[in-house]
Amino acid sequence: MTMGNWMRDYVFYPLSMSKVFTTFGQKSRKLLGQYVGKRLPPFCAMFIVYILAGLWHGAAWNYVVFGLWNGVFIMLGILMDGLHDKARRLLRIREETITWRIFRIVRTFVVISIGRYFSRGNSLKDALDMIGCPFKNWRDITFLTNSTLLKLGLDTANWVVLAVFLMVLFYVDLVHERDISFREVIDRQDIIFRWLIYIGAVLVILIFGLYGPRYDAASFIYQGF
Q1: CA 41 to CA 36: how far, in whole Å?
Q2: Which string of b and e fits 91-100 if b means at least 16 CB within 10 Å?
Q3: C-alpha closest to that of 53 among 108, 115, 123
Q4: Helix pair 98-120, 61-79: axis angle to 10 deg
Q5: What distance lies between CA 123 and its chain's CA centroid?
Q6: Chain segment 143-169, per-residue pLDDT in tens
Q7: CB atoms within 10 A of CB 204
Q8: How far apart are the first and last CA of the chain?
């Protein structure tokens, strides 16, 4: 979020509102029409922002593709917004249905998950091989029954902690969907109750966070950036 805000304030806005981009926008509207010409300059600025965001993660092609992957989908979403509305009306899709909401959640999850391969691979080739791997090895599903999942760095106790806090996160997210802010609710409480929550949160991090003889701060994914 911090990086996104910085890119917005110091890269996107200065570029999109610069004299060069303003002139570019005027010429593109004359040549390509209002719809495309109006969107082309901010899209170019956005394109640069996402390339820089990718390079911030690492000076390699897989990180450039990681940045562009996210940027292209955002730009396509803006460009195809009108077409998307027409298709929804044509297919008589009701936005208030649970199935439509589930579809949108799954769609976003798949797009983000595929993009993550590019930030996790050691190179662009490795990332592409990783994307193809689930489709090549899907026949072997013995890992579901031979306890292999419990050997991926998590024992039974860790799985229980993970499940509990996933439910907590899910509940908090549901509350936020109803425009209720936990931070504001806590701020309205008396000082004793507020500090009990703060101290409890710190203790939870200390108790359930990474620690112990095998703990290595450098293994944290963003330590390398």
Answers
A1: 9
A2: eeeeeeeeee
A3: 115
A4: 160
A5: 20
A6: 666 666 666 666 777 788 888 889 988
A7: 13
A8: 15
- Tokens of residue 131, six digits: 């994307």
Spatial CB neighbours of 47, under 8 Å, sequence gap ≥ 6: 68, 71, 75
Q: What is the DSSP string of 94-150?
A: -TTSHHHHHHHHHHHHHHHHHHHHHHHSSSHHHHHHHHHHHHHSTT--GGGTSSGGG
Predicted pLDDT of residue 217: 60
Supply 178's token pair: 């109803």
Answer for the pair 39, 79: CB distance below 8 angstroms, yes or no.
yes
Full DSSP string of 51-79? HHHHHHH-SSHHHHHHHHHHHHHHHHHHH
Question: Which residues in the chain come in under a pLDDT of 50?
Answer: none
Nearest Cα to Cα of residue 4 among 46, 47, 53, 39: 53
Q: pTM for the full model?
A: 0.63
Using DSSP's 3-state secondary structure scheme, residue 193 falls into helix
Neighbours of 56 (CB within 10 A): 14
Contact 219, 153 (CB under 8 A): no
Give the pLDDT of residue 180.
86
